[in-house]
Inverse folding.
């Protein structure tokens, strides 16, 4: 009869089993072996590291470096458990300057494979069956470490390995992960005798990033940004692609701290916050953040693979990264508009952002947000009318009908849903009336035709029109001719941006509630969050007050707000989100829900008014990053119809 757990005896595992269990925490597949060997090679001070992989790393992994090498005594001691030259006391763990430090890597590799280390004039072999056999060897400059036949003595683990092609892919990812931050070192990777990656030393971070990851887009689309803490506790560099380089997931966002790639959601979040509004439709940037932090402020000794770290305080670094990116993309947007959409679109009085684009790859930012990076001009407060010379001043004589002037509605005066046909505003343009006249005079008709020809098809260059409203198209777009170019304006994105800017600039219409909207708080942290948010919410049209411990109420809401209490609470207390970002999200959501949608048909006066406001936007993107309009120049149209 099988014994129960209560009847079983506690016993001490034999050394071999214990060693394999410990090794399994560090070496779970070939790429883990490669990770540990690359850490040692980088720590050796090497300037050239060559990696060879055979059979997915299961058959053999060979790492050769030209670093400091190992003495005979170090070779004999290297593969023993917890043998290391990088720390000696417990306090050293608080001031780590190397990638490896615990001394478990080589011992773990030797426990599950055949390990060979060659350096100087000696070679050491070590495995489960061979215990530190030292023998003379051909003189080696630096160190060559080879791991062969992984898990040959551990069949239970080996059967869970993937096919060699899949293991090779993971090894290559580990190789690139280690090569990315060290542009001072040349890395070469060969797989089954074929060179797969050859990265030279001395590259810029952007060049190393693009070439290592084999990104299809040009390195010219990537920028290097820098920032540092005023007290010197940290500094960082970021390589990030412009909005044309995006991904549907976050796999191509890399976080490095003191040379190690780690998983740290807070720093990933900082990158996304800084780029918010520039990457549309839920896409994410391609970026790498390289942080150098004072060693006593970060602890890497919390994960067997060193994939995670513990920080004393990340708030200032989080703010530094997000604000540097935000200022960069604000400057980038203004620069792009001037280059792509022709300078006359922009009011030349827009203040410049504190960014230096004289060197395309360098942008220097800091943790505190500089005053010069603020765009202080209200987006629409001083908008200038651009509808001058709409048509040449000519009078069309009446023929068979008289058309009264279109009603001069303000923007949003009326529109109907394209799908249902129901009016959404009470004020709707009146239908045109017709008056039948006598039989037209042929001479008069001929004159009319000439007049119309001269107005709608002038012989002068199209650039004579500073602004001309054409009409609406496909239930979504407003078509405008301006400065020898055709503009297709997305009515939803334009209206959404207009409302968003209005909310953020404090020009809000509010709605006082007969019955206050109450929100119960879940913690003291939520209480502090609400106290910090209340003044900023008031600026956006949301008035709230504390009525008791753990309970707040909203007495006034922005008149554009369409959500409920649950939705508002969810946005207010999103974990890890800074108050300014919460306010921005609430404003973006409010604007999105209130803006005209695809399929809503605006009357001509409303559409023209919206188009003018859209072309006056300093940032022609909706809060979620989609462009408000696209531009087709006269030259491009000529090219499309093969006209020269």
């Amino acid at each position: 009869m099988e014994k129960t757990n209560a009847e079983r005896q506690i016993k001490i595992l034999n050394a071999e089993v214990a060693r394999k269990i410990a090794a399994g925490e560090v070496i779970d597949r070939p790429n883990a072996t490669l990770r540990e060997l690359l850490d040692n090679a980088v720590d050796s001070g090497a300037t050239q590291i060559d990696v060879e992989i055979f059979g997915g790393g299961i058959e053999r992994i060979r790492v050769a470096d030209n670093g400091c090498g190992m003495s005979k005594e170090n070779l004999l001691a290297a593969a023993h458990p917890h043998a290391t030259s990088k720390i000696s006391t417990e306090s050293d763990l608080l001031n780590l300057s190397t990638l490896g430090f615990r001394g478990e890597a080589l011992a773990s590799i030797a426990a599950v494979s055949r390990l060979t280390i060659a350096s100087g004039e000696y070679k050491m072999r070590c495995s489960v069956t061979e215990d530190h056999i030292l023998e003379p060897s051909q003189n080696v400059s630096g160190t060559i470490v080879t791991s062969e036949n992984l898990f040959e003595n551990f069949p239970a683990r080996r059967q869970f390995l993937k096919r060699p092609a899949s293991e090779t892919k993971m090894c290559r990812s580990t190789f690139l992960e280690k090569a990315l931050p060290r542009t001072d070192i040349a890395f070469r990777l060969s797989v089954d005798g074929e060179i797969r990656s050859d990265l030279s030393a001395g590259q810029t971070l952007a060049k190393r990033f693009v070439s290592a990851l084999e990104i299809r887009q040009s390195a010219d689309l990537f920028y290097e940004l820098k920032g540092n803490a005023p007290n010197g506790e940290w500094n960082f560099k970021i390589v990030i692609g412009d909005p044309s380089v995006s991904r549907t997931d976050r796999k191509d966002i890399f976080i490095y701290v003191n040379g190690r790639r780690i998983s740290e959601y807070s720093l990933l979040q900082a990158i996304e916050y800084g780029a918010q509004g520039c990457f549309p439709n839920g896409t994410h940037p391609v970026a790498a953040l390289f942080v150098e932090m004072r060693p006593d402020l970060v602890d890497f000794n919390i994960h067997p693979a060193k994939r995670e770290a513990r920080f004393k305080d990340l708030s200032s670094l989080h703010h530094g990264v997000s604000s540097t990116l935000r200022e960069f993309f604000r400057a980038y947007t203004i620069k792009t508009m001037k280059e792509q959409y022709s300078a006359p679109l922009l009011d030349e009085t827009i203040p410049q952002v504190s960014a230096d684009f004289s060197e395309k790859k360098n942008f220097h930012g800091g943790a505190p947000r500089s005053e010069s990076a603020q765009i202080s001009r209200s987006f629409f407060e001083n908008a200038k009318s651009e509808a001058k010379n709409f048509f040449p001043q000519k009078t069309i004589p009446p023929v068979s009908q008289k058309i009264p002037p279109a009603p001069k509605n303000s923007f949003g005066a009326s529109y109907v849903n394209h799908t249902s046909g129901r009016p959404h505003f009470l004020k709707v343009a009146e239908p045109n009336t017709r008056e039948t006249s006598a039989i037209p005079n042929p001479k008069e008709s001929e004159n009319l035709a000439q007049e119309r020809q001269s107005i709608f098809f002038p012989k002068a260059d199209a650039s004579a029109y500073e602004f001309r409203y054409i009409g609406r198209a496909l239930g979504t777009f407003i078509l405008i001719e301006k400065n020898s170019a055709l503009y297709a304006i997305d009515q939803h994105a334009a209206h959404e941006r207009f409302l968003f800017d209005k909310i953020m600039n404090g020009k809000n219409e509010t709605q006082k509630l007969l019955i206050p909207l109450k929100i119960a708080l879940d913690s003291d942290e939520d209480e502090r969050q609400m106290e910090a948010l209340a003044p900023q919410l008031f600026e956006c049209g949301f008035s709230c007050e504390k009525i008791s411990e753990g309970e707040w109420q909203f007495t006034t809401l922005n008149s554009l707000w369409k959500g409920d209490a649950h939705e508002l609470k969810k946005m207010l207390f999103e974990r890890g989100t800074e108050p300014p970002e919460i306010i921005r999200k609430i404003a973006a959501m409010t604007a999105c829900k209130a803006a005209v949608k695809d399929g809503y048909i605006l009357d001509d006066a409303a559409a023209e008014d919206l188009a003018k406001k859209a072309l006056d936007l300093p940032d022609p993107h909706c809060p979620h990053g989609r462009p408000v309009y696209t531009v087709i120049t006269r030259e491009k149209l000529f090219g499309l119809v093969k006209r020269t």
The CA atoms of residues 523 and 550 lie 7 Å apart. The first strand starts at residue 48 and ends at 54. Residues 342-445, 452-464 have pLDDT under 50 and may be disordered.
